[in-house]
Specification:
- Helices cover 11% and strands 39% of the residues.
- The chain has helices at residues 3-19, 140-145, 178-181, 271-276; strands spanning 28-36, 46-51, 57-61, 67-73, 76-83, 89-97, 102-104, 107-109, 117-120, 134-138, 163-165, 184-186, 195-198, 201-202, 220-228, 241-246, 254-263, 284-297, 301-310.
- The strands form 5 sheets. It has a 5-stranded mixed sheet with strand order 3-2-5-6-9, with no helix packed on it. It has a 5-stranded mixed sheet with strand order 10-15-16-13-14.
- A hairpin with a 5-residue loop joins strand 2 (46-51) and strand 3.
- The protein starts with a helix and ends with a strand.
Length: 311
């Protein structure tokens, strides 16, 4: 068969697979109510949610019940500004959203001019009032700084209570079998029968639910593991749900590079080699990579690149 026909057949199969896949977003949502000092609802108030890293602004208005909802927010740090004619503007800094957060933040406006700003200091921790699943986020600093033999980022799901690793999960992904990549029991469910997503796209295949893709550790910003009472938006799993969120570019350039080497300099020869006069065997392993992210057009378009090699 000509090569171009083989390629066309592969593409058609991929489209057929995608047709049966339901992507789940990693984005977060903020909702809440806007009232005056007497507790009266304020319809028509403007809510501006600004991403501190990219400068992207999401705008919504409160409905007739004084309720607002802003969705599609990528995980990161945000600033909220509430504006209503006849009232002082309210500004709240330092709102940190994680993957698939659904949090409620209420605001109270004081009578005054919109040119006056009232800054709301950090208050109570954000509560997940809009979601009933039992889950935990493993944040970016933990992902980046946790010692990880083989840099298999899926090994970090065992940091979440209720996750138990089974055989074949440890070690470098490239030297391991895909059967071991997702071989975890989550929330008492069946091993290797959980569902995994990368930026909302499923990375399990239909054949024995194998995990078909292993993201690089340096490319992951954070991830959430749902262990019980999982949302009905997910299907085709008999355990838990792991949802990875990759890093993204911001208005500032940032990047990293790494190299891990293992060799036999400090290795001892084994008993049988010493007994038969054989020299210490050669061994060299290199794992290396780089990432870079930044603006393509400031406040508008951003890019992020990650690459990893293993020899």
């Amino acid at each position: 068969m000509p090569r171009h026909l083989k390629l066309l057949g592969t593409v058609m199969c991929l489209f057929m697979m995608v047709g049966f896949c339901q992507a789940q977003s990693t984005n977060a949502t903020i909702t809440g109510s806007i009232t005056d000092q007497s507790g009266g609802i304020l319809p028509g108030a403007t809510v501006e949610i600004t991403n501190a890293g990219t400068g992207v602004v999401n705008i919504a208005k409160t409905n007739d019940a004084g309720i607002y909802r802003v969705g599609g927010l990528v995980p990161g740090d945000y600033r909220a500004r509430i504006v209503k004619e006849g009232f002082k503007a309210v500004v709240k800094e330092g709102i940190t959203l994680h993957v698939q957060d659904q949090v409620s933040i209420n605001f109270i406006l004081e009578v005054g001019s919109v040119t006056e700003n009232v800054t709301v200091e950090a208050g109570q921790p954000l509560l997940q009032t809009e979601s009933t699943d039992l889950s935990q986020v493993v944040e970016g600093r933990t992902v980046a700084e946790t010692p990880l033999n083989g840099r298999n980022v899926l090994n970090l799901v065992t940091l979440v209570p209720g996750v138990v690793a089974q055989g074949g999960t440890a070690g470098n992904p490239t030297s391991n079998s895909p059967n071991g990549w997702g071989n975890y029991q989550i929330g008492g469910g069946m091993a290797n029968q959980s569902s995994s997503y990368l930026d909302g796209a499923p990375i399990n295949v239909s054949y024995v639910n194998l995990t078909a893709l292993m993201p690089s550790q340096d490319s992951i910003q954070e991830f959430r593991v749902a262990t019980n009472n999982v949302s009905p938006q997910y299907g085709r799993f008999a355990g838990g749900v792991v949802n990875f969120s990759t890093k993204s570019g911001t208005n500032e350039f940032h990047g990293s590079a790494f190299e891990y080497i293992r060799n036999n300099v400090l290795n001892a020869n084994n008993f049988f080699n010493n007994r038969t006069g054989l020299p210490r065997p050669e061994f060299t392993q290199n794992q290396f990579g780089t990432t870079v992210g930044g603006p393509i057009k400031r406040d508008k378009i951003f890019g992020f690149f990650s690459w990893e090699g293993y020899q």
